[in-house]
Each structure stands twice: as C-alpha cells, then as structure tokens.
Design a protein that fits this description.
- The chain has 360 residues and is of the alpha+beta class.
- The protein has a single domain, classed as paralog of FGE (formylglycine-generating enzyme).
- Helices cover 24% and strands 16% of the residues.
- It is built from ten helices and eleven strands.
- The longest helix is centred in the N-terminal third of the chain and has 20 residues, at 37-56.
- The protein is globular and about 55 Å long.
- Bound molecules: calcium ion (CA) (2 copies).
Length: 360
C-alpha cells in the first residue's frame, strides 16, 4: 500500500473552470494528450492550492448566467457552497436556458456523501424530476476529469484500453440518479422487454439494445440521451481523482457486496435500484446491478473527443457499456473499466441510465 500513499492526500476534488458554452461547441476535437502521473499530481497540488484560496473568498453573485455557472461548477468551490447558494445558482441556470429545463422540475438541493462528523462535507446537488418518466436526475458539475486508469503495482487491475490517462473537460450535465427502471420504461414505452419480469417495477429495465435505449430517450423527450463514457466516469467518480484511486466510488475493485449489486449468480438477477448508498453526486448503482449503455462507439483513448461532452465517435462495431453488473466481480465494476456490446445486443444484465447536457 505504500505505492498508493501519496494518492490519499490527493482525494480532494479538482477544481476546473467549465468551458464557456458556445465557444466549446465551435471548437474542433483535439487529440487526447496522455498525462504523466507526476504531471497530474503536480497540477492537482497547484489546483488544490488555488482552490483553498478561492474558497476563502465569498462566492460572488454575478448576473451573467454563464459566469454564475462557472462558479457553480468549479468543483471544490461547489462542494463548499451551501444548499441555498447551490439553489440560487441552479435557478440562474434554469433562467438562462428555460427550454432546456422545461419538464425538468427542481425538487430540492440535497447534500450527499457527508461525513457524520462533518455535515458540511460531501456535495450539495440540485435534484430534478423528469416528469414524463418519473426519474430523478442530479445536476452534475462540469469540470476536469482525468479519464482512465494507470493503476500499476502489485494490485494492478486495469486493462490496457483504460490507458493513457488523459484530460477531458466536461460541461455541466444532468444524469439520472438511478438506472432507467421498468416503471420509468413503461411510462414511456408500451412493452417492457425485461427478462426478470418477476422483479418489481423498481428493477432496472434490461434486455434493451442500444437502439431501443436511444428510442426510449427520444420518446421521453427533453433531449434525453445516453451519457458519454466521460460523463459516466465523471459521475461515477463523484469527485474522486480518477479511476485508479483507492476510493469506494473511484476504484471499484475493493467494493464489497454490501456496497453494490455485484458477484451474484446470474439467476439471482438485478435488484431494485436505490438499495445501496448513493455516491457524492447522489447517484445510485453506478457500480453493478446492470451494465449501462453509453453514447460512444468503442475507440482507443488516444483518439480525439468532442469538447464539452467527451464523446468518442471513432469507427467501431461496438458501443461502450460501463459499471459491471450483478454477475460481475468488483474488478469489472471499477469506474475506469470499459466494456462493449454490439448495438443490437440485448442482455439481461444490460440497461441504461439517461443523461443530457444543459443545452443553452
Ligand atoms: Ca449499474
Ligand atoms: Ca475492461
């Protein structure tokens, strides 16, 4: 464990300025630059320092919604904000993009991942209800993701396709707090395709192809779609530094069976969503239960990504899925682990979790 000791001091979340929308969408994809371990550790230290200084200052109220969002989504500062401030800033986002939020009703601002000894720890998250499906969404701060894993040493568990670690800057996005459930599926589509029909309506829908998952999103409206791999990994990490760290949400391979629905016999099937602790973004079952379709084609990490979303659209026969399932081991449920299926595949251990960017 001496190998990982320096990492433990680095679990403070990174701060990153969300790129201003409008400029980002006009940018051409840039090739992914590998990041050396020493480099990102140094960057991280510098950012932590800047963060500490920034959080000493009171968050400024700015009338321009874009600036307000930048404040909102600088992660460390966001974590330090009170529920009222997060609510105020979310209001600004909603006012800036009224059509983007139509049908997404803000329910509350809730703090997730607080330590019992420090109720102000964790993240204050604006929670939305998507009215047509009944699914709840977390408004996830955009920011800097060190995507991938370079976990080496005696307990190395990563796969080559998780390398190199590279930076992806994400715009803020909404992501469902749970996998799409059978109930949510049925509120939008007539036929429930699930294999485990004996389960309750709170089971995740499974046995849906990539096409069918997209069809559900389109029918459910409000520009829902599938998260990109980068968005999924960012949401899964929920402030942990990257997919290599020794963090229950960041790593996964040390997950226990009381933390996620993993390592079951396949006949046991998935379970109702929300049976395990949510992460610091208020998101359930990113690890395990069922694999989750992502928007991306499977492509290597040195290929360019779309600015703001991290989408990879390289040529491939396969679509990516993330997070492992009830039949997988903890290793497969790691944040950085990538798996892929043919887009037409239907599996009783494969479903999805809808998401959407905040389109201005
Ligand atoms: Ca899952
Ligand atoms: Ca893998």
């Amino acid at each position: 464990m001496t190998k990982t000791t320096p990492h433990l001091g680095l679990l403070l979340p990174l701060m990153a300025f969300a790129v201003a929308r409008g400029t980002s969408s006009a940018m051409a994809p840039e090739p992914a630059e590998p990041v050396q371990e020493e480099e990102w550790m140094r960057e991280r230290k510098e950012r932590s320092q800047r963060n500490r200084e920034a959080t000493k200052r009171k968050p400024e109220r700015r009338t321009a919604p874009t600036r307000a969002l930048q404040i909102l989504y600088e992660r460390d500062e966001y974590a330090a904000l009170g529920e009222e401030q997060v609510g105020d800033l979310a209001s600004l986002a909603e006012a800036a993009w009224p059509t983007g939020f139509a049908g997404m009703r803000r329910l509350r601002v809730e703090r997730f991942g607080s330590q019992p000894t420090n109720p102000r720890s964790g993240y204050a998250i604006a929670v939305y209800l998507h009215e047509p499906s009944g699914l709840e969404f977390s408004l996830v701060p955009g920011g800097l993701l060190y995507m991938g894993s370079s976990d080496r040493g005696s307990d190395r568990v990563g796969d080559p396709d998780e390398e190199p670690i590279h930076r992806v800057v994400l715009d803020p996005f909404l992501i469902a707090r749970t996998e799409c459930t059978r109930a949510a599926w049925r509120r939008v589509m007539e036929v429930d395709p699930s294999y485990f029909v004996s389960g309750s309506e709170a089971y995740p829908v499974e046995s849906v192809s990539h096409f069918e998952a997209l069809e559900w999103c389109k029918t459910a409206g409000m520009d829902l779609g599938l998260p990109t791999e980068a968005q999924w990994e960012y949401a899964c990490l929920a402030g942990a530094r990257d997919g290599s760290g020794n963090h229950p949400y960041g790593l996964g391979y040390k997950l226990k069976t009381d933390q996620a629905r993993i390592a079951m016999d396949w006949t046991d099937g998935p379970t109702e969503v929300r049976q395990y602790e949510p992460n610091r973004f208020g998101i359930f079952d990113v690890h395990g239960n069922i694999w989750e379709w992502c928007a991306d084609w499977r492509s290597p990490y040195y290929e360019a990504v779309e600015p703001g979303t991290g989408l990879r659209s390289g040529k491939s026969l396969y679509r990516v899925a993330r997070g492992g399932s009830f039949i997988e081991t903890a290793r497969e449920a790691r944040a950085a682990n990538r798996y892929a299926f043919l887009p037409g595949d239907r599996r009783s251990y494969l479903g999805f979790r809808p998401a959407r960017v905040l389109t201005p």
